[in-house]
Structure formats: C-alpha cells, structure tokens
Amino acid sequence: xxxxxxxPGDFVQITTTDKVFEGHLMPEYELESREFLFVKLKSGYNxxxxxxxxLNIELIKRNVKKEIAGSEEECDFEDxxxxxxxxxxxxxxxxxxxxxxxxxxxxxxxxxxxxxVPEISETGVEILGKQILNKFSENLTPDxxxxxxxxVYKCVEKGAKGIVIPHGTDxxxxxxxxxxxxxxxxxxxxxxTGAQRxxxxxxxxxxxxxxxxxxxxSLDPEKFHNKGVFVLMHEGIDDKFCAVFRGTKVRKMHxxxxxxxxGDKFARLNFFEKKFERYENGKILEKDEKNETLxxxxxxxxxxxxxxxxxxxxxxxxxxxxxxxxxxxEGTGLGHVHDxxxxxxxxxxxxxxxxxxxxxxxxGRTNLNVYATGRKLLKAGVVPCEDMLPEAxxxxxxxALGHHNKHxxxxxxMLTNIAYEINERSEI
Length: 428
Hints:
Number of helices: 10
Number of strands: 21
Oligomer: single chain
Strand order of the largest sheet: 9-6-10-12-13-14-15-16
Helix content: 10-25%
Shape: elongated
Strand content: 25-35%
Distance between the termini: 52 Å
CATH architecture of the largest domain: 3-Layer(aba) Sandwich
CATH class of the largest domain: Alpha Beta
Largest sheet: 8 strands, mixed
C-alpha cells in the first residue's frame, strides 16, 4: 500500500487480475500478512486481496482523518459539551485476529477502533473518547463496573450529548444492567455496543453496530425518548438493521451469531437509510426533570446467581448460603425447585440470607401462586422477581443489598420498577 499514496480509510477502486473491488482501505497491523491488502467493502465485510494480483488502485475519495481526541486514560473531557463520547473498554469490537495463534486479542485503542470505521464521519457529530479499560468482558469485575459508571458520570457532568461504550459481548448485559441502577436520572443516552466478530474480520458486525450506536446517542432525547442506558447490536444476521434494548431487558442468547442479543426491543434503526422505529410504548418512567444525574455505586458483591439443577442437594445449598448474603435462583418453569430445598431455603432466609426467584426459561413471569411448590417457597420467604431477567435480578440484588439491611426493605426494592427491569404485563 505504501507504493501508492493512500492512507487507511481512503475509498478506492482496486482492479485485480480477475475482479474489481471498491471499499475503504483498512490499516495494516503488525501480525497481519504483508502479502495482502485489506479492504472493507460497501457491504461492511472485509476482504483480503493478494498484492501480487493487484493491477491498479484508483483513489475515489480521500478519507479525512477524524481522530477522537484524548485517547489516553487521563483525558478529562473539558471540551465535551454537546459531543458524543466514546469510552472504550475492550472486547471483540476492539480486538483483532492474532495471525500467529489464530485467536482474537484486545488490541485497538479508541482511535484505532474508529480508524477502522471511516463512515463515522458521515454521522456529522463531533466525537471525543478514551480507553478506560482493555479487557475481554469475561474478565470484568464489580470494581470495573464501578469504574465505568464513574467515567460515564464524569462525561455527563462535562455536558456530553451522548455516550457510547464499546464492550465485550459475553457480559455486556451485566454491565448495562448495573449502570442502569448506578446512574440515576440520566438525561442523555448511554449506549453499550459490541461485536461478535472482531473489526478486522471479513464478517465483522462492528461497523454497523458502532455507527448506529453513535447515531442513536446523537438523537434528540426529547423527541426519541432515548434517555438512559441501552444496548445496541445487530437485529438480524444481515447488515440491515440494529436493535436497541433497555439495559435491563436484554441478554446474549447465542454464542456466535451477529443477532445474539434478544429481549424487549426498544427500537430498530439504520443510520445509512435514516430509519428509526420505536417499539416501546407506555414504559416511560416518570422522572423529576429537576433532578440531576446521580452516581450511586454502593453494592454488595457477595451475591450469587444460582441455576437450579435436579441434583442440587440441601447440603450443597446450605454451604452456598454460608458464603453469600443474597442468592438469585433460576428455578424451573414459573419458579420452582425440588421440595427438599424448601426447608434449607427457609432456614437461610431466617438467618438473614435474601433469596429471590427467577426462571431459567428466561422469558415470561415467575408466579409462585400456581403450584404447591411455589406457595411453599412464598411461605418460606422467597421473593419472586416478576419478569426480570435472571442477570438483571442478580445485579439488582447486589444494588439492593448495598443499600438496605431489612428483608422488607430489600423486598420492596426488588419489586419496584427502578430501571425498566419489570414490565407491568408480560409481552409476547
């Protein structure tokens, strides 16, 4: 590529011995094969072209490099007013293929990430950003959630118009749920996004996800009601639309498909076609417009999310109750466990362990009034979590135990709709 006066991001036409390609030139990285020139096609897919087969490269449009300022961690966003801020945390969206091992590793800085998406200039918004973490999401801890929430809060205080958080997909829905509780009265959109396939792979979903996240974060909250914490990912396996979910009403449902995230859809959008469809109706929580955004990071980390399984014995459960202050059980069906566990559950609750019930069917509502097992669990003191997703209930219980000590107060908090985690009625 250096023999031609082109730069990463330039839109070019490449003529080879057997085909013509048009697309954006991709940056070359240390571990990539020097035999290939990598180009991102209009479809969003990347292709590697053998340099020996290239007959000519014609510049169609020069990329005006638009770096985000302040990619270093110490950036203070003093000029953030009215801008979209990118807080990069790592994950597949900020990763590339290691051609030595064949694996994927976190490697992109915030600037590197946007350099792979030259279409970002088409959004017409001003962007600032920095790298606050560089981890795969399975390695994130509650302390990382607190750090991310703190950084978002500082961005809001500096006047950001919207905030985009590129994040690994494995635990993205845990992070989005936690920030939904830690950040109160948000008056701007905070958008988590990710990628199932790294930015330098041919089938990467990073481009559409990132562009649409920036677009969504730039929309007028008064018109689009997009204040709060959201997750934005591919809606389907193609590159047509992205789906937007509330941060507490979404979970990863597939290991590798680009439309892995499912839940209660807030909206769908396509920046390139300027299409926006909002699905959520009647769920706007009443907010006092005079309230300022508040950061509240008090949580109890000693909480467990336990999936019930047929060989879960009372002895194992009793050991767990000695180690955790709160347990969210993923029960079967409407929220059930084996009868033999009801007595140790009651003993644990009597000793101060808070136990909540969700369903491992994922969608639908827990109801402990239908069958005898459920009624026994209610009598023992188990709190059913309405239609909360198990991960959201787990995160919410951490937050509840960080603020309350009495069982009644914790129960009331768990059954109050704080961050769109509970629907009045279960949707199809």
